[in-house]
Amino acid sequence: TGAVCGYEAGAAIGRALMDREIVRRFRPTGITGTIGAAVGAARMLELGESAITSALGFAANATVGLNEWPGPGADDMFFHVGFAARNAVTAVELAELGAYASETSLDGAAGLFAALGRLERAADVAAFEGEQLEILSVYHKPAPACNYAQTACQVARLIAQEVRNEDIASIAIQASAAALNYPGCNFNGPFERVLQAKMSIQYCVAATLVRGAIEDANYRLLRDPEVARLIQNTTLVEGRDFTAAYPGMQGTEITVTLRDGRTITRRLDDLVPATADEVRERFRTSCDRVLGETATERIEAAVNRLDQLQDVAVISELLASSDINRGEMNAGAS
Q1: Which residues contact 62 (CB under 8 A, 6 or more apart)?
Q2: Domain spanning 2-137: which superfamily?
Q3: Which residues contact 271 (CB under 8 A, 6 or more apart)?
Q4: How far is 213 from 221, CA to CA, in rounded Å?
Q5: How many angstroms separate the Cα of 1 from the Cα of each of 4, 44, 54?
Q6: CA-derived radius of gyration, the chain
Q7: CATH topology classification for 147-268
């Protein structure tokens, strides 16, 4: 119930608050994540209405997450979720202890919406009014990249099944205005850090065409000459039908022109989410390589029992013990 309420609150506020200009400056996770986590935790602890209101108010005071990181491919984004979680816990603990936060921290004259220049939208916040719960709209990314690069990667993989990358002369990509305008997504390089590549739609498409797959290994090609050639011959423009369909759908169309003059166009009107089996396989592949097979199996088993655990700290303990085991393995290998 707590998770359901948390997702509902975060999504309701996000839908009302976030727009193209806001997300160019602020990472939605840092704002809606803090508030959603606070509401969810307060509900889980069965706090009263007054305490939940204060928890939400303190969380609104502790939102964080600037979108300056995509350009340099900096590490800020990795910590946005951590900051949001930490601040949410603090907000709930303060409220539980009796601290009182302003009841208008969201919609007051100097509240969060006003601070971001969107006070008129505060009245649009509406939770539990959709056709389905917001938590049911959560999807698993098929590609280890930005949300706006997901469909592009999948379309590129379709094309890679039909042509060799060395036969491609140029690439034309159409996507929504939201995709083009999100920081870092319309970037041709140079690529110095992995996060720059994971944000760039051009890079994601080129690397997928070169490797013919959607994998972490795609983002180890920062200086690959063939990836660079394809990017240099790529255009990315708005597809108005994709803009009109967004955010309900995230479509992409890619046309490749071959050296012999032929063209191939492929399109998806929306991304295809990763299945549960694909998520698990990706987890095992990544963790086996870093932590070892035994640790991976133990962590996965603990996650499978998450709804039965009395203390989720057991997962952190497994990760910590994996660090020790990894050190021992590395020492033995050397």
Answers
A1: 34, 87, 88, 90, 91
A2: 2-methylcitrate dehydratase PrpD (1.10.4100.10)
A3: 139, 142, 150, 151, 154, 250
A4: 13
A5: 5, 7, 19
A6: 22
A7: 60s Ribosomal Protein L30; Chain: A; (3.30.1330)
Dist CA 246 CA 243 (whole Å): 5
Distance of CA 310 to CAs 178, 305, 306, 307, 314, Å? 42, 10, 9, 8, 9
CB contact set of 89 (below 8 Å; sequence gap of 6+):
37, 41
The residues facing 171 across adjacent strands are: 234, 256
**For the chain, give me the number of helices (H) and strands (E)?**
15, 4
Q: Is the pLDDT of residue 40 over 50?
A: yes
Spatial CA neighbour of 236 closest among 177, 196, 194: 177
In b/e form, how buried is each residue of 2-34, taking b as 16+ CB within 10 angstroms?
Answer: eeebbbbbbbbbbbbbbeeebbeebbbbbbbbb
Within 10 angstroms of residue 162's Cβ, the number of other Cβ atoms is 9
Output the CA–CA distances (angstroms, integers) from residue 11 to 81, 121, 134, 140, 268, in the order listed: 15, 14, 7, 16, 25
- Residue 263 CA to residue 203 CA, distance in Å, equals 20
Q: Say if residue 180 is exposed, middle or buried (CB neighbours under 10 Å; 0-12, 13-18, 19+).
A: buried
Q: Quote the distance between the C-alpha of residue 266 and its chain's center.
A: 25
- Distances in Å between the Cα of 155 and the Cα atoms of 144, 158, 256 are 15, 5, 11
Split at pLDDT 50, 70, 90, the class of 321 is: confident
What's the pTM value of the predicted model, to 2 decimals? 0.87
DSSP state of 66: B
Supply the pLDDT for residue 64: 83
Q: Quote the pLDDT of residue 228.
A: 98
Show the tokens assigned to 265.
């166009």
